[in-house]
Amino acid sequence: MQLRYSFRVYPEPGQRIALARAFGCARVVFNDVVRAREDARKAREPFPTAAALSQQLITRAKNTPERSWLADVSSVVLQQALRDAEAAYKTFFASLKGARKGRKARSPRLKSRKDARQSIRFTANARWKITDGGRLLLPKIGGIKVKWSRSLPVTPSSVTVIKDAAGRYFASFVIATDPDADRACWGEPEPDAAVGIDLGLRYFAVLSDGTKIDSPRFLRRAEKKLKKAQRELSRKRKGSRNREKARLKVARAHAVVADARKDFHHQLSTKLIRENQSVAVEDLAVSGLARTRLAKSVHDAGWSQFVTMLAYKAERYGRTFVKIGRFEPTSQVCSTCGHQDGPKPLHVREWTCPSCATRHDRDLNAAKNVKQAAGLAVSACGAPVRPEPVLARRKETGSHGIPPEASAA
Questions:
Q1: Are 273 and 308 spatial neighbours (Cβ–Cβ below 8 Å)?
Q2: What angle do CA 296, 300, 301 make, to 5 degrees?
Q3: Which long-range contacts (CB under 8 A, 24 or more apart) does 152-157 make?
Q4: How far, rounded to the nearest angstrom, does the alpha carbon of residue 175 sit from its chain's CA centroid?
Q5: Tens-digit pLDDT profile for the chain (409 aa)?
Q6: Mutual angle of helices 241-275 and 303-316, in 10-degree steps
Q7: What span, in angstroms and rounded, lies between the C-alpha atoms of 234 and 26?
Q8: Nearest CA to 37 among 57, 20, 23, 11?
């Protein structure tokens, strides 16, 4: 399994200029590939191959006055930019054919120097290395200071240098992990340790064992500071240095919120995966909820990022991860007897089952139903537990009634 280990780097002023030059050259090569393929499409000609584009847009372009500055950066950076464009087109065509899951991918677009994120990638062919002093030595850039927050388990296969909207630099290493070593490092929890998770807004998560995890609401807590920073940005003249300073201030405020949310998700997902052999969660329609009046709160919670962390950590450490369908009526079914009581408005936080008279907490009941729907609930003897279907009552709305022979019996 391949993972990314990201570390903060602190380039010196001269190295920042070299990185900016590399970002620009990679962006130009990417845009040249997009233009070449668009010109071929408009002319109804076959798309040029990657080898032909490499020869035309990199090798020959370095010998022309218009593109001679491409020789100032590592050729590996340019080749990786070309591969990124080719991969973007493959993703787009796979999406058109229906071979790719998820939402439809858009055709590759031209990159801008004003994009919030700039990146370049170095593979092993670039002969980059980590020095004995702990610096990241990159070709034609030099040794960059790295803030090592943890050690690398194995030798990375590539490194990507990233500059974000807040002006921070990161080095992202691709690591191939050993599943057996990862599982041995964490050990194995109890075989029947399983948990169902109900994600929400009032509580970030309610577990089937009754644990309720408060929602940190990072964005809501930082709204006052963000509002002030954005108001100052709107008053600066476009193109001025003061506007750029105000823009960085807003970007850094947003970065603090995003980093705090990501750290919270990492800690919680690690705890759940470490303590349980099986984890179940509901597949929420986040994109649909993000178009409602709850959009800001939904984005603030970051459910998609959290579920993604659960999935890859479960795969890495040999746990079972189950995502049940979004149309499962987890909030309508009694987790004790299985009676379905119909949909309920959001302000109803507790309800009593009319069949077995059990008093339910809405979120806790949903978490138990998530666990049962995933087939993770077990009895004392280890057999799976799932509520048996209950016959509909004769006068229940939408019911076909109970057959006379069944009622007589």
A1: no
A2: 120
A3: 152/5, 153/177, 156/5, 157/123, 157/124
A4: 18
A5: 889 999 999 999 999 999 999 999 999 999 999 999 999 999 999 999 999 999 999 999 999 999 999 999 999 999 999 999 999 999 999 999 988 887 888 999 999 998 989 999 999 999 999 999 999 999 999 999 999 999 998 899 999 999 999 999 999 999 998 877 777 777 778 878 899 999 999 899 999 999 999 999 999 999 999 999 999 999 999 999 999 999 999 999 999 999 999 999 999 999 999 999 999 999 888 888 888 888 999 999 999 999 999 999 999 888 999 999 888 888 888 888 888 888 888 888 888 888 888 888 888 989 999 998 887 654 434 444 444 443 433 333 343 444 434 333 3
A6: 50
A7: 32
A8: 57
Task: Quote the CA–CA distance of 71 and 64 in Å, as a whole number.
Answer: 11
The pair of three-digit structure tokens given for residue 356, joined into one six-digit string: 């077995």
Positions of E strands within 193-345: 194-199, 203-207, 212-214, 278-282, 320-324
- Identity of the amino acid at 149: S
Tokens 């570390």 correspond to 7
- Give the CA distances from residue 225 to residues 144, 195, 220, 221, in Å, rounded to whole numbers and listed in that order: 33, 37, 10, 9
Distances (CA, A) of 226 to 218, 229, 232, 238, 245: 12, 5, 10, 20, 15
Token pair listed for 387: 């509520």
CA–CA separation, 77 and 120 (whole Å): 6
In terms of residues, how long is the chain? 409
Lookup result for tokens 């034609």: 140
Tokens standing for residue 248: 């960085």
Give, as one character, the DSSP assignment of residue 107.
P
User: What residues act catalytically?
Assistant: 198, 282, 363
The amino acid at 373: A
Locate 251 and state its tokens: 């970007």
Token couple for 163: 């500059």
Q: Give dist(CA 209, CA 363) in Å, integer.
A: 11
- The first and second tokens of residue 340, run together, are 């379905």
The whole-angstrom separation of Cα 360 and Cα 358 is 6
* Closest to 115 measured CA to CA, from 31, 58, 50, 37: 31
